[in-house]
Write a structure and sequence with these properties.
mainly beta; six-stranded antiparallel sheet; 32 strands
């Protein structure tokens, strides 16, 4: 029995030693690995994860993730230890998100890109896999963000499997225009299209809604880049407003006459207390000039916003830009063709066009249009409203035509990213064509009647007949005296 018990004890010890040896020999490849999932529906990012602290991860009784045996991780250079000291001691100072954010910014110069783990993009998310336990900094890869996007603020996460939502955001910009009918005096609200006469001042509005993370930036820059068509001339009257306050003095305003571009910029909107999702508006006017394009192409006016897009320390000069937003100002043309009663082109006429204002008065649209050989008369650059056409010079031998009143009615997209002219209607003898932007009419002149003048032809005839009768009577009287016996 003693020998048997001794053998059992020896076997037990051998078995125990074997178990210990087996546990110690577990290859590192079989240690648990984790992943970080980043929710972001914006495609095109490349996220990188840098292991800042390597450690053993466990969950304490309160359910919190806790790191033990903390050392500097593979994602930082040796300079981190020199800068920050022992990893375990530095980790103790990260007691809240603000501390972690500040530490992340400080680490920027000590990140080891050679050991970074990159993300794989999925449907509305990005995943970084095969991560050992530890404390990680997640960031956009340098120079990987372009176009209409922005960089994510640095994310610090303790790994078991975690999901993170990036703190990033982009602003938006809109451009609008108001439309005024001169005849009714009515002015619309801000919309995406309008029609005006050449010579009118057209009101425009730019609206920038800032990103949702402006507070993450030390300074937040915006620049309105506004491009006017050749048919619009800036009136040098831009005004910038924020929360009902005029902040124009905080902006630099530059108009490039050669390129017809307007630039309105501020290096730091936080200087006048703009912050997350703040709204900044610009209003100005531009004159519709003689270069205005008639018809459906119209006179577009476009804007995009340039903005700070990297809140991290190295990204002070990084910028993105929004998509372009566009409005269009339309203008139209009236054409009158002059003919005689046979439908043949008739020279020698002159016309004046009048437009009815909101007081009910007809005011001339420019001067009389006429020419010795002119048979077609054109008025370029009209908007909707009520008009009157008068023949103010009448061809010789023809009657003056009665004035013609007519109303132009235009329809165009008032809410659209790409506004179009959809209809151009006119009453009376005119016809409208939305494909050309013209309203056109053919008008006739009729010759006058030639009437006899009082005391003219009729009186002369009476004189002639009377004279003949007198001469005949005298001749008979003379014959009678010569031949008295004859009756």
């Amino acid at each position: 029995m003693k020998r048997f018990l001794s053998m059992i004890m020896v076997l037990t010890m051998i078995f125990a030693l074997g178990m210990t040896a087996h546990a110690a020999d577990v290859p590192a490849a079989q240690a648990p690995k984790f992943s970080i999932t980043i929710n972001n529906s914006q495609s095109g990012h490349t996220y990188e994860a840098y292991q800042i602290f390597a450690a053993t991860l466990f969950v304490n009784p309160e359910g919190n993730k806790v790191l033990s045996d903390i050392k500097w991780g593979t994602g930082v250079t040796e300079g981190a230890a020199t800068k920050f000291g022992a990893a375990a001691e530095k980790a103790k100072t990260l007691s809240n998100p603000n501390d972690a954010r500040a530490f992340a910014n400080e680490l920027e110069a000590y990140l080891n890109a050679a050991n970074a783990k990159s993300s794989v993009e999925g449907a509305g998310k990005y995943t970084i896999s095969d991560l050992e336990a530890g404390y990680y900094l997640i960031k956009d890869k340098d120079s990987s963000v372009s176009g209409h996007d922005s960089y994510t603020s640095y994310i610090m996460e303790v790994v078991g499997d975690v999901t993170a939502t990036p703190k990033s955001g982009v602003p938006q910009v809109e451009k609008k225009v108001k439309d005024t009918n001169d005849t009714t005096g009515e002015t619309t609200g801000w919309q995406d299209s309008a029609d005006y006469d050449i010579g009118d001042n057209v009101p425009f509005q730019l609206t920038a809604t800032l990103a949702s993370n402006v507070s993450s930036y030390n300074a937040y820059k915006i620049v309105f880049h506004d491009t006017l068509s050749a048919g619009l001339t800036y009136n040098n009257d831009a005004k910038v407003m924020f929360n009902g306050t005029d902040v124009t003095a905080n902006f630099q305003i530059h108009y490039d006459n050669a390129k017809n571009t307007l630039t309105i910029s501020c290096d730091n909107v936080k200087a006048f207390n703009a912050t997350n999702d703040s709204v900044i508006t610009v209003e100005y006017t531009a004159k519709l000039n003689e270069n205005a394009v008639v018809g459906p192409t119209g006179n577009p006016n476009e804007v995009h916003l340039e903005y700070s897009n990297n809140p991290n320390p190295s990204g002070a000069g990084d910028v993105g830009k929004t998509p372009v937003d566009k409005v269009i100002v339309f203008t139209f043309e009236a054409v009158v063709n002059k003919t005689n009663e046979k439908g043949e082109a008739l020279e020698g006429a002159g016309f004046t066009l009048y437009k009815k204002d909101k007081n009910g008065d007809f005011k001339p649209v420019g001067e009389e249009v006429k020419g010795d050989k002119m048979t077609t008369f054109t008025w370029k650059g009209l908007d909707d409203g009520e008009y009157m056409l008068k023949e103010t010079t009448t061809p010789n031998g023809y009657n003056t035509m009665e004035p013609i009143t007519f109303t132009i009615t235009a329809e165009h997209d008032v809410t659209s990213a790409d506004p179009h002219l959809t209809a151009l209607n006119v009453d009376k003898v005119f016809q409208g064509d939305s494909n050309t932007g013209k309203v056109e009419a053919t008008v006739e002149n009729h010759p006058g009647l030639v009437l006899p003048s009082t005391g003219g032809m009729g009186t002369t005839m009476f004189y002639a007949v009377g004279g003949i009768l007198i001469l005949a009577a005298g001749a008979m009287l003379l014959l009678k005296k010569r031949n008295p016996g004859k009756a």
